[in-house]
Amino acid sequence: MARILVIDDDAAILVTVELVLKRAGHEVITTINPYAGLECLEQAAFDLVIVDLFMPEMDGFEAITQISLRYPSLAIIVVSGHSFEATAAQRPDFLPAERSAFVSLGKPFRPADLLAEVGKCLSPPLGRISEA
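-> structure tokens emitted (132 positions)
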């Protein structure tokens, strides 16, 4: 399936997300440190990154900025304990409108919600023919 990088300073969230995604057939790499996450991105190709918003050392805002600058086509799911009212017509201001691959998911989230958002991010754009 997909190779997914998860960056979150909460070990319980990392374990849960990893378990859910691996059960769905994805390859998952996790890290509690955004700097280590950026190193992972330099060393291997990923299909998706899941990033916590509020972390020590480097917060998710900076991590998202760095990832977007270096890998502009990489899909990103932002997770946060802070609730964002995001719909298709409105998204949090920190998610650039030109990046359709950005999704925000509030904590706590259900495994089904996580898998649904992952599926949306990994789906080919409408009208694009899959090579599979």
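The radius of gyration is 14 Å.
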